[in-house]
Amino acid sequence: MAERVVGGCKCGHVRYEGTRHSAATFRCHCRDCQKLTGSGHSEMLPLEIDTFSISETCKVFEMQGGSGQPTYSGFCPNCGSQLTRRSTRMSDRVYVHASSLDDPAHYAPEKSIYTDAAQPWDTDGIIKPS
After folding, report:
1. Helix/strand/coil for 105
2. pLDDT surpasses 80 at 2
3. In the chain, where are the structural domains located?
4. Which of 2, 62, 65, 80 is most solvent-facing, going by the fewest CB within 10 Å?
5. What digits encode the pLDDT tens for the residues 20-31?
6. CB pairs under 8 A, 24+ apart, for 2-7?
7. 127 φ, ψ to 5°?
């Protein structure tokens, strides 16, 4: 049975739900994630785009990703919580920030990406390839 995932922002204004995608969960150290989250990295969980729904009140910020193609970051316009990331390169999924899950204890990162951009004070949590 597919794992159903539910979450939302800090103030409760934006809610989402979807089914877990088979792609790996990851810890992203890219500069975009650092700036968007205000921390050293983001924790991302993939959901199937065709099962994903989110409140219409979610705002989306479009930017250019490292590939040169557009990426989209969804956030609450009320409290500012970062909720989603998606890209045109991986159109079958949307990534949600693990901290926005109703039960983030179910999240476990499987790999780290963009580790070359990791800040020196945020390297202890880098997951080494096996």
Report:
1. helix
2. no
3. 4-116
4. 62
5. 999 999 999 999
6. 2/48, 2/51, 5/45, 5/47, 5/96, 5/101, 6/101, 6/102, 7/83, 7/96, 7/100, 7/101, 7/102
7. -90, 115
The reported pTM is 0.91
Per DSSP, the three-state class of 19 is strand
3-state secondary structure of 40: coil
Cα separation, 118 vs 112, in Å, equals 10
Q: What share of the chain is helix, strand, coil (3-state, %, to 5)?
A: 15, 40, 45
**Closest of 49, 52, 74, 71 to residue 62, by C-alpha:** 71
Which residue type does 7 have? Answer: G
* Pairing of the two strands 111-113 and 26-28: parallel
Write the CB contacts of 42 (distance below 8 Å, at least 6 apart in sequence).
27, 28, 33, 36, 82, 85, 97
CATH class of residue range 4-116: mainly beta
Strand partners, 87: 71
